[in-house]
Each structure stands twice: as structure tokens, then as C-alpha cells.
Amino acid sequence: MNEHVKNTDLQPPANTKKVFVKTYGCQMNVYDSERMADVLRPLGYAPTDTAEDADFVILNTCHIREKAAEKVYSELGKLRVMKEARGQSGLGAMTIAVAGCVAQAEGAEIIRRAPVVDLVIGPTTYHRLPDALERARAGAKVVETDYAVEDKFEYLPQINREKTISRGVTAFLTVQEGCDKFCTFCVVPYTRGSEVSRPLAQILAEADKLVDAGVKEITLLGQNVNAWHGHGPDGSSWGLGDLLHRLAEVDGIKRLRYTTSHPRDMDDRLIAAHRDLDKLMPYLHLPVQAGSDRILKAMNRRHTAAEYIALIERIRSVRPDMALSGDFITGFPGETDADFDDTMRLVEAVGYAQAYSFKYSPRPGTPGADLPDHVPEDVKAERLERLQALLFSQQTAFQQSMAGRECEVLIEKPGRFEHQMVGRSPWLLPVIIEMKADDKLEIGDIMKVRITKAGTNSLHAERA
Ligand code: 5AD
Ligand code: SF4
Question: Which of 81, 328, 334, 400 is deepest in the core (most CB within 10 A)?
């Protein structure tokens, strides 16, 4: 999981206060951080890139593994020093908030453990942030962790995103939040609550706004995005496949992606979207977690390894160039050497272009934490190392296989050198384009290129 610090490029108007948002964890948090900045803007808060000069600091946290939560407490230690220094310098108080999944999971405990925190706010209540901030600035310790996903969806889109904010050509759009799957290792059903889908009209309205602001590629987000369900204009039941078909009709949208999916929710209509829609990119993040049926059952994944492999074959039969990405956990309680070998075999059978893999980390309150036969840390680590070596070799082979190929690239920004532009291939890899003197390329264009060289994390290309 990456750690991002993301703020918009809006120049702060005079006499504004400053907010610093630090984002941990998943893309949903990146999206939420932008929305928090949106709701604070009318209160006179402009984003800043450093905590030191911020009147308001928000840590948007991740609780998926233990290390993620520990990082937050260590960051709070640093912020305590800054807050004290700021108090002494007469610059005015610094208000500190913990948002995201650690906030939801630990609630008031955070303030007990780190009294420097003024405000704890869970991911479904960001629309209440202005009110909560006002109370915190008046001296109260505020904890807002009730579930209120519908309210959040209804309220947040009404915030008018100004067109002057430079958003780039790619954007996330949350269509679904929460999860009802209850994988036994995972905190998400507890921290993000049960599945809620955003209504079609809201999604279309937000997509239009993004297109107006210059966005060409939209990635639909959800913890369990392919469980999205809604109604079409005629009242019929729609799934993510229908939503993608509808969004592909929007002229200004040139590319569509979605993440993260569960194998159980890859239905026929969604697979058909990969066959029918040129705008839907051939890249799919479809976590399997493990390759042993015994462990998959203990994880409550509700499918077997063979079913997963058969699903991948169906997807590749309609979209042969589909690049697959996955998540894996080593050392789930009870995992034997033979179980782990099944994971290695599954990886060999599928062939991943990209993957994330982790040692199992028991999360308090999840059923996995109470299972017998926890695997020793050194065994988890040794298995992770072997798995990552295999995944890395597949990733490298995938990237090398790009050399000599032709593909389209969506131009995102200028390159490091004057004659370069940087964009993304359909398979999500960054592509550096060496421009010829007569190439006229603008950000947001799609250009057909030939890949000349594959590096470790990017490709080089020239006009095809
Ligand atoms: N331990 C290790 N990895 C975990 N993940 C989720 N919960 C845990 C845990 N308790 C991983 C899964 C998931 C990804 C987002 O994080 O692989 O797909
Ligand atoms: Fe967690 Fe499983 Fe839901 Fe994914 S599907 S968010 S791993 S419970």
C-alpha cells in the first residue's frame, strides 16, 4: 500500500487558513482526502503541503494491517511537538484530526492514547467535518464515528468543485462504499460498514463535472466495486457492467477503470463490458489472497482456487490482453507448507502483471485473529519472500513483453526532459514518450505509440 500526500493546486486566497491532509492506505482514502479538502474550502481553508504551517492537520488513516496504525501514532508524536511550538510562537492553535479507518476502529481510544488529537472522525461522516471542526476549535474533544454512508453520498457531491482546480486528466470516482463479504482477516466490514451503492444519477452528475474539469480517464472506486448495484432510468436492476456501458456513452470520457473487485461479483454483464467497451481498459485488480481451498474457506472467500482460475480464463477469452493484478496474504492461521505451495501454483497458472502481497497481520475483532495455529513470523516472512520473488519475475516478464508493441497512451504530464511527455498505457504502466520535432502533443491527448524499451517501472516509446 502506498502512502500519498495529495493536495489540490488551488492557490490559497488571501487571509485563509490552511489545512494539511496526509493520506495513508488505499485509493478510497485518496478520494476521501480530496472531498475533505472540498468541504473545508467554503470555510476558508486552503490546502497546504506541510504540517508546520497548517491550522488544521488531518491524518486520513488506514487500519488494514498493524503497521499502518502504528505509523499514525508515530506521526502524532511528531505533530505534538509542532503543535506545542506553534502554540508558543503565537501563530494560533493547530487543530489535529484523525480520520479514516483507524478513527473508525479505535474511536475515543485515540484521544486517550494521543491527547494531542482534537477530533476523531470516521470515513462515513466527512460531511459533518465543518461542524465537528468548529466544536473542536472551541475546545471540545470530538468523536464522530456513527455510520452514515447515505448522508455522506447525498451531501458531498453538492459541494461545488471549482473548475479552476487543476485535477489532471485522471480522476477517481467513488461509486460504492463498505463491504458485506466478511473475509475473516479483514477489518473493512467493521471500519467502512456494510455495502452502500451510490445512485446512478449522482454518479453521472459527478462524471459530468469531472469531464467539464478536463478529466479523460475515470477510475470507479469501491471497497467491493463490482458489488455496485443500482437502477437504470427505466427502473430495471443494474450492476457494474451496466454502469460501465452507460459511462462509456459519455463523450468526454476516453478511458474507464474500476477497483477493487471480488471474484464472486464478476458477473456475465461485467465480463461482457470487457468484450464490448473499447474505453474499458484491459487491467483488472482481482485479489485471490491464497491458492489453497482449505485456506480460502478459512478466509471466508467463498470460492475455490479452480473457480478463480476458470473465471480468469473466461475474462481472458473475451479480452486476451487483460493484465491481472492481485493481493496475497502469506501465513494465514493454519497455513501449511502444502497450502502455501498451492498459492505458488495458482500464481504460476494465472500470471500476474502486478501484485501486492503481505504477511498476515491479526486484526483485533476479526474472526481470523481468534483462529488457532497462528503461523510464526519467520515462516510468514520466508513464504512472503518466495512469493514476492515469483510475482516480481512475472511482473518483469510482463513489462519486457511490451517492448516492440504498439499501444495507445493517454498523455498526463510533461516528462523530465523538454522533448518528453509522460502518460499511461492501457495496462497502467507509465510510458515516457520521446517526441519528434513535429509531434504536437497536449496533456489529455491519446497517442498511438511503439514501445521501444521496457525499464523496471516505466516504458519508453515513440510515435507509432
Ligand atoms: N493481514 C494482511 N493483509 C491484509 N489485507 C487485508 N487485511 C489483512 C490482514 N489482516 C490485505 C488483503 C487485501 C489488501 C487490501 O490488504 O490482501 O486485499
Ligand atoms: Fe475485506 Fe474481503 Fe471485503 Fe475485500 S472483500 S474489503 S478483503 S472483507
Answer: 328
Q: What total of structural domains would you count in the chain?
A: 3
Residue to mutate (ligand 1; options 62, 284, 329; most atoms within 8 A of CB)? 329
Nearest 10 degrees: CA dihedral of 133, 135, 138, 143?
A: -90
DSSP string, 323-369: EEEEEEEE--TT--HHHHHHHHHHHHHH--SEEEEEE--PPTTSGGG
The CA 48 to ligand 2 mean position distance, Å, reads 33
pLDDT value at position 150? Answer: 63
Pocket test for ligand 2, best of 26, 64, 104, 181 (most atoms within 8 A of CB): 181
Q: Report pLDDT digits (tens) over 292-338.
A: 999 999 999 999 999 999 999 999 999 999 999 999 999 999 999 99
Same domain, 102 and 35: yes
pLDDT digits (tens, 9 = 90+) for 211-224: 999 999 999 999 99
Ligand nearest to the CA of 179: 2
Q: For residue 354, tell me if it sits in a domain.
A: no
Task: List the residue whose alpha carbon is closest to atom 7 of ligand 1.
Answer: 186
CATH of the domain at 104: 3.40.50.12160
What are the tens digits of pLDDT across the range 348-386? 999 999 999 999 999 989 999 999 999 999 999 999 999
Q: 202: closest CA among 163, 165, 170, 228?
A: 228
Question: Of 297, 330, 363, at which residue does a domain stop?
Answer: 330
Atom of ligand 1 nearest to the CA of 187: 7
pTM across the whole model: 0.90
Domain of 457, in residue numbers: 406-463
| Residue 279 belongs to domain with CATH number | 3.80.30.20
Looking at the fold, whether 237 and 269 belong to one and the same domain comes out as: yes
Q: For ligand 1, is residue 361 a contact (CB within 6 Å)? A: yes
Residue bearing the CA closest to ligand 2, atom 5: 181
**Residue 178 Cβ < 6 Å to ligand 2:** no
Query: Same domain, yes or no, for 171 and 312?
Result: yes
Of 426, 153, 378, the closest CA to residue 279 belongs to 426
Among the bound ligands, name the one nearest to the CA of residue 194: 2
Last-in-domain residue among 330, 358, 391: 330
Q: Give nearest CA residue, ligand 1 atom 18.
A: 327
- Which helix H or strand E contains 46, and what residues bound it? strand 45-47
- 103 with 207, same domain: the answer is no
Indicate the residue type of 132.
A
